[in-house]
Amino acid sequence: MQQTVPKTVQQGVILRLAVPVPLRRLFDYLPPEGLNPAELKPGQRLWVPFAGRKLVAVLVKVVLESPQAQLKPAQELIDSKALFDSGARKLLNWIADYYQAPVGEVYAAALPAALRKGKPADHWAEQWLQLTTEGKGLPESALARAPKQQALLQQLLRAGQQSRTYLKTQGHTPAVIRALQERQLVEWVSGPTVPPPMPAAEATPPPQLNSEQQQVLAAVDCSCFSATLLEGTTGSGKTEVYLRLMERVLAEGRQALLLVPEIGLTPQTLRRIAARFPEHSIAALHSGLAEGERAQSWLAASEGQADIVIGTRSAIMTPLPRLGVVLVDEEHDASFKQQDGVRYSARDLAVVLARNSDVPVLLGSATPSLETLHNALNGRYQHLRMRQRAGDARPPQIHVVPTLREPLEEGFSPQVLRHIGETLARGEQVLVFINRRGFAPALNCDDCGWIADCPHCSSKLTMHRRQRQLRCHHCDYRRPLVDTCPQCHSRSISALGGGTERSEELLARRFADYPVIRVDRDTTTSKQALDRLLAPARDGEPCLLLGTQMLAKGHHLPRVTLVVIQDADGGLFSADFRAPERTGQLLEQVAGRAGRGSLSGRVLVQSRFPEHPLLQMLLEKGYGTFARQLLRDRAVAQLPPTHAMALVRAECEEPAWAEEFLHNARLFMQSLVPPSPQLQYLGPVPALLERKSGRYRFYVQVTAQNRAQLQPLLARVCAWAESNKNRRLRWAVDMDAQELS
Ligand code: ADP
Ligand code: ZN
Ligand code: ZN
């Protein structure tokens, strides 16, 4: 972290603070005037003046001398007790060091938004919207002529009350609320902010553990640190293992932390955990919560009231005073890596946190990341496997359907359509996986070759037919759909390629007797919406589910017996060296949705290149063998995880500036450590998506045989770049980068 100049300029009680500014150092202040220094504890927040602004800083330590001259006093102490205990501070300082991140930004990222803004760390009042007596008397079908009002009415009929902040996140506008108020159907009341209620729990008796589960549980000692990869087939009962480990530490009065991918925290998961531990309090931490709710959950976790903490990525930075075990579900998921700001990997931090706290960490996946697999194969992590599906489910059969010379109907081969029809006719369910939302990924003029591009990104616009729009999936630029070519005025405009919307139209027409449920970001704005959308599928009726990777995870749908993967080829030919790994994970996860109940499953994979060796290996030998082969390839190519890799990134509206900056960064680094077989430089090269939201993006890649060589070099290049004065250029260091885009 900061390099202090040895010369002491000022003496007395001095506060060393993490201030949320993009500088990699702490700042010294005098205590607020009139404050008794005995009230100061590291981990408290203070208001401080900084460059003409007032910021929320965190006290990292109290020192007695400072090298800085003319210290200013902090304005005000916010907290009477520390928000971050010493364990949490140790982790945050580690993050700042390892990821070369500004320490003040790390502390800020660890706080929920409300506390980051300086709100008091206690229960504050919230406005709640509730139904009047008249409103309560209405049926859910009322107000059919005003669909927005009806949606709000239905939500209130189900939930009773909803907070103002929550309603905002759900897209209910003030105008809609006012309309219901004018009809005297709803009213505002003021009440405390509370974490959102857990979904109703139906207590279920735990199953008898099978022998593989027993072996795993016997191999994890909860009294000290250990890191374990649990490589278990989908449906092998990993979640049951997590529940048993939780049970063990809860019995000792300790807390359990479960990290899940962004789309893995479904109401279904929460229900399952709540049903197992009805007497324990659970705090959920994810982006779907309103600000006040999130702060409440965070405080419940950090003050030790919550026994079980379930959260997405940023939950790893929550202080947990009684931590007993760290569990990471679907550890391979890309959402565990933060892609901007403080670019940490929550999965890697899970191991650091467990080691710091001397507790076990379990990384679970059916398709482990190559990073974790590497650590397991070289003995740094314990490696446990579960090969059998739990209960009576059997593994699915997988077949490739070649599509190169087939007469396809909107991207589906006749054979696949026939299988879908037969499966539905048997009263079973079908899941169709399509990697792209929207109607078509490009719109093109047949006469002059014009293609609808995003004006701000180096990408094409996706056609969304129902909304009659063209949208950029990178920057969210939208424009109305056109019927004539803007270049040559021809009317022969056609949509190229397929997306979920286009497939939905075909399937709904072909299988008109069955419900077709489309699940993607356009149909599902919240986790609750997804849960509702999937309700018919859970009821077990024959239906056709169709969607993007949102469908690949976390949903237990026992009556799905046929899974169709419309196109397996995308990831096999990408410029990103991680693409085959991701494709393999996705295919295996999607295939794992088949035959989860007592019915056996079948998977049909459409491909234009059925002979592709990677695809062959994946389908014949499974992800485990496939991943081990990829690991050998990576070692030969000197890529992660056998080598450490960091990117120095820069982006700017003026491409030449970004390139020049990176060119100089590389020269600077090379002057410190010349290129060698142990440490190599590449670039500046354009990012895979070269232009995004109007800015050109480049990076320099540095790979090294080990991290110890990389760290000091990155620290120096950050110090060099901080003195760069070009305000229109953004730069970052991305340690263990996951995306080259
Ligand atoms: P995973 O997390 O590995 O995908 P789950 O823990 O969700 O697997 O288990 C898959 C299904 O098998 C769930 O319905 C679960 O209730 C059931 N299950 C898990 N363990 C057992 C067991 N020992 N006996 C019977 N059923 C089990
Ligand atoms: Zn044209
Ligand atoms: Zn764009």
From TrEMBL:
It is an enzyme of class 5 (isomerase). Zn(2+) 2 binds at C454, C457, C472, C475. Residues 219-386 form the Helicase ATP-binding domain. It comes from the Bacteria. Residues 469-648 form the Helicase C-terminal domain. It catalyses: ATP + H2O = ADP + phosphate + H(+); Couples ATP hydrolysis with the unwinding of duplex DNA by translocating in the 3'-5' direction. Its EC number is 5.6.2.4. GO terms for molecular function: hydrolase activity. Its cofactor is Zn(2+). The keyword Metal-binding applies. The keyword Acetylation does not apply. Binds 2 zinc ions per subunit. Keywords: ATP-binding, DNA replication, DNA-binding, Helicase, Hydrolase, Isomerase, Metal-binding, Nucleotide-binding, Primosome, Zinc. Zn(2+) 1 binds at C445, C448, C485, C488. Initiates the restart of stalled replication forks, which reloads the replicative helicase on sites other than the origin of replication. Recognizes and binds to abandoned replication forks and remodels them to uncover a helicase loading site. Promotes assembly of the primosome at these replication forks. Component of the replication restart primosome. Belongs to the helicase family. PriA subfamily. NCBIfam families: priA (TIGR00595), PRK05580.1-4 (NF004067). This is Replication restart protein PriA. It comes from Microbulbifer variabilis. The lineage of its organism: Bacteria, Pseudomonadati, Pseudomonadota, Gammaproteobacteria, Cellvibrionales.
